[in-house]
Amino acid sequence: MTAISFDPLEVPLRLDPQGAIRVGQSRILLDVVLHEFGSGATPEDIVGCYDGLDLADVYSVLGYCLRNGPAIDDYLRRRKVEADELRQTIEANQSARPNLRATLRARRMAQGNGAAS
Question: Could you say which of 6, 24, 85, 105 would form a disulfide bridge with 12 (CB–CB 3.0 to 4.6 Å)?
Answer without folding.
Answer: 24
